[in-house]
């Protein structure tokens, strides 16, 4: 049965009205946020801001907002001129999750990689690498349960970073600057306590990052349409009297609760410009510094990737500390990322778009792989059939079959 849109008309209209009402509230909060930011934008306030953050941490007040690195809160920075040459490597991944109703239990990771020699005129080098996992040690948890989707996603993330490191290693010694671009946050947020082999995965992930450092590759994580409010947490802290800083007070963002960072930075950033550098004061980032050292702590900035005469389009870019050590290099990375976002009308980095195209596994390809697995199992004398439930789903979705109930 098709979706009955006429039953959604009133609900969609109410949704539009509610969101319009919310926008009025958001606009009011944006004004408050800009007032707080402007009041602390002078470079003379930087040490005061750092002291406030340190005080909140010392009080164990559960502060999870941002800390300015060493740049004034209200500063904006244009990109450097575009480098004449550079090697840009990007990866992305996709997966086929385990299906208990399939002919065999497995999952698949497919990692797409693109290497662009910017300024050379050469065609990009592209490759994809699929990995099939079916052995019990990959499919089962320590208590013999089936691997979860979070565990598969964590392994995919590790594989993406490992692929970046491998290709950077193969391109080491190149005279051109080397930029490796990762899709998403560098902080590996998807690996929680529900991933039993998290320590091993963390080790592989950090080893890959260290390999990038060893070959003097620059690393950046690109987050499109970020919903983060790290700087909003900082503004709330600055809006709170020092003697009122407690866990309860910092549990929300007070007068600007619910506001996202990009909602007020939009009015400050011109095309290609970035904000000041910040460090997220989160347990994950503390783990990164503890595991990888000072060089592996993650900083971030927001950048407006829209072209001139377009509405601002902000992204968050995360970089390890070894990248921010040289601001000239950072500015060149900023220029390369902005240039990549001008290659497509969607204002998303070209290399990440291509990496996604290389990695994605389409529905028809999944069906072909399942058929290939069934043939292989049958050839080796193993009964290979999907469950009745899966067969019924496949039939209904592929051919719109009408099922007749027999009496």
Task: Write structural notes for this entry.
There is one protein chain. The protein contains 14 helices and nine strands. It is of the alpha+beta class and 407 residues long.
Secondary-structure topology with pairs:
Layout: H1 9-39, H2 46-58, E1 66-68, E2 86-96, E3 107-118, E4 125-133, H3 136-139, H4 149-170, E5 178-183, H5 198-214, E6 218-224, H6 230-239, H7 247-250, H8 261-265, E7 278-280, H9 283-292, E8 298-304, E9 314-320, H10 321-324, H11 327-341, H12 350-359, H13 363-379, H14 388-399
Parallel strand pairs: 2-5, 5-6
Antiparallel strand pairs: 1-7, 2-3, 3-4, 6-9, 7-8, 8-9
Keywords:
alpha+beta, 407 residues, 43% helix
Please provide the ordered H/E string of secondary-structure elements: HHEEEEHHEHEHHHEHEEHHHHH
Low-confidence regions: 402-407
Strand order of the largest sheet: 1-7-8-9-6-5-2-3-4
Helicity, as a percent range: 40-55%
Instruction: Give the rounded overall mean pLDDT.
Output: 89
Radius of gyration: 24 Å
Largest sheet: 9 strands, mixed
Strand content is 15-25%
Query: So what's the oligomer here?
Result: single chain
Give the end-to-end Cα distance, rounded to a whole number of Å.
22 Å
Give a short overview.
This protein has helices at residues 9-39, 46-58, 136-139, 149-170, 198-214, 230-239, 247-250, 261-265, 283-292, 321-324, 327-341, 350-359, 363-379, 388-399; strands spanning 66-68, 86-96, 107-118, 125-133, 178-183, 218-224, 278-280, 298-304, 314-320.
């Amino acid at each position: 049965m098709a979706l009955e849109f006429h039953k959604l008309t009133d609900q969609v209209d109410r949704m539009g009205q509610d969101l319009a009402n919310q926008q009025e509230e958001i606009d009011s909060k944006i004004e408050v946020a800009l007032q707080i930011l402007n009041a602390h934008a002078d470079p003379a306030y930087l040490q005061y801001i750092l002291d406030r953050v340190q005080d909140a941490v010392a009080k164990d007040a559960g502060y999870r907002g941002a800390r300015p690195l060493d740049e004034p809160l209200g500063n904006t920075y244009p990109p450097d001129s575009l480098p004449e040459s550079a090697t840009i490597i990007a990866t992305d991944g996709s997966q086929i999750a385990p299906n208990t109703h399939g002919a065999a239990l497995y999952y698949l990771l497919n990692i797409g990689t693109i290497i662009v020699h910017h300024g050379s005129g050469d065609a990009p080098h592209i490759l994809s690498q699929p990995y099939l996992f079916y052995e019990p040690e990959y499919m089962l948890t320590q208590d013999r349960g089936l691997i979860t989707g979070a565990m598969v996603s964590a392994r995919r993330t590790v594989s993406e970073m490992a692929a970046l490191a491998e290709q950077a290693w193969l391109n080491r010694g190149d005279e051109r600057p080397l930029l490796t671009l990762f899709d998403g946050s560098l902080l590996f947020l998807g690996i929680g306590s529900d991933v039993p082999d998290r320590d091993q995965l963390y080790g592989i992930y950090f080893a890959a990052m260290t390999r990038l450092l060893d070959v003097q590759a620059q690393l950046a994580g690109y987050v499109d349409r970020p919903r983060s409010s790290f700087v909003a947490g900082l503004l709330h802290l600055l809006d709170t009297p020092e003697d009122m800083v407690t866990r309860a007070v910092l549990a929300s963002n007070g007068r600007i609760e619910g506001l996202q960072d990009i909602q007020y930075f939009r009015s400050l950033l011109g095309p290609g410009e970035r904000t000041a550098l910040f460090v997220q004061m989160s347990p994950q980032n503390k783990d990164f510094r503890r595991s990888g050292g000072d060089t592996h702590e993650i900083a971030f900035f927001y950048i407006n990737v829209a072209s001139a005469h377009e509405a601002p389009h902000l992204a968050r870019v995360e970089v390890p500390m070894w990248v921010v050590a040289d601001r000239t290099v950072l500015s060149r990375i900023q220029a390369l990322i902005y240039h990549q976002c001008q290659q497509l009308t969607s204002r998303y980095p070209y290399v990440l778009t291509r990496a996604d195209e290389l990695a994605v596994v389409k529905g028809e390809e999944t069906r072909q792989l399942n058929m290939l697995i069934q043939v292989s199992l049958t050839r080796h004398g193993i009964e290979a059939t999907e469950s009745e439930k899966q067969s019924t789903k496949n039939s209904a979705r592929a051919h719109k079959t009408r099922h007749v109930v027999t009496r």
